[in-house]
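User: I'm curious what two different proteins look like when written out as structure tokens. Can you demonstrate?

Assistant: Sure. I'll show them one after the other, since each token string lines up with its own sequence. Here's the first protein:
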Amino acid sequence: MLTYSEILSSKELLRGCWDPVVERCGTITNLEVIEVLNRAQDPKNTFAFQIEDLENGAQATWHSHPVTSANLSIDDHRFFQSWPEMLHFVIGVDEIRCYQVQDGIVYNVEDEEDYSPREAQGAL
């Protein structure tokens, strides 16, 4: 799992990934931002990964919201809960937020005190 310092570095790397037209998405592996094909039927309003995109050593996921904030949608919340061992970044119009799942609850990581790194629970 990423350290808090790596979360901040990842946010900087993600600054150029926002798009005003479609949701872009990808993973972060070893502090490298990797964009993957958004497989959603309606990429203007949602995103979808292929399972293989998430099983190749990804430490975090990311996706953009073309016309909204970095707040979670219901679909985001469900997706994040499905991958609790990863961090999740949302790139909104005005900011980038990092989310973490603990005990089934999705938390916004705003500062180092909010972040609770843990050992990976099994290989992906």
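Here's a second, unrelated protein for contrast:
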Amino acid sequence: MVDKGKIENAIESILEAIGEDPSREGLVATPARVARAYAEIFAGIEVDPQSILETTFNERYTGLVTLSEISFFSMCEHHLLPFYGFVSIGYIPNGKIAGLSKFARLVDALSKRPQVQERLTEQLVNLIDSVLSPKGVAVIISAEHMCMSIRGVRKAGSIVKTVVSRGLLSTQVDRFREFESIVSKEK
């Protein structure tokens, strides 16, 4: 459970530390607004991501299932600045499928916590692999990181891509290229 009171106190201290007056008209409600925003932004901490994929269906479909451009945002755990972009998921069922909305919910649960893109990509693949036991699974994430865009090197618009695959989508290059081709054409 998010402790909004602690967040409010911390934000008030930050405002004072940067030389602002927290009692100024435009800032007086800021600590409470930030606390409410953080409760929403970090809501995934309280979710068991594996439970999202609990309901599955037996299905003999043997082709590739793809979901592309699932939008997400997360907070970089190194600077607590946002990174955001799109997730594409592909899997080859092995007798079991999940409802399509479950994948978007899984992305939300894992991204709404302090995170790094590399771990997020691995977590998605690992959960889908462990729960559905597909013949193959792959995840591609493309994201812009504010910690790189607005500070440090200040390279706005730079996109970070991470890719993880397992099973047939890892060992059979043609199957992975099929997935990659499908999700890249949908942009």
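A detail about the second structure: The helical segments are 4-17, 30-41, 49-52, 100-111, 117-132, 146-149, 168-171, 173-185.
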